[in-house]
Amino acid sequence: MNYKLLGRSGLKVSELCLGTMGFGTEAGWGADKDTSFAIMDAYANAGGNFLDTANVYKLGTSEKIIGEYMGNHDRDYFVLATKYTLKDNTTNPNASGNNRKNMMRSVEESLKRLKTDFIDVLYLHIWDSITPVDEVLRAMDDLIKQGKVNYAAISDTPAWVVAKGNTLAELIGWSQFIALQVEYSLLARTAERELIPMAKHFGMTVTPWAPLAGGALTGKYLRGDHGRIKPESKRLNERSRNITQTVVDIAAELGVSEGHVALNWMRRQEFSCIPIVGATKVDQLLDNLKTVDVTLSQDQLKRLNDVSAIELGFPGDFFNEEGVRTNSFGGFYDRVEKRV
Question: Where is the NADP-dependent oxidoreductase domain (predicted)?
Answer without folding.
Answer: 15-307
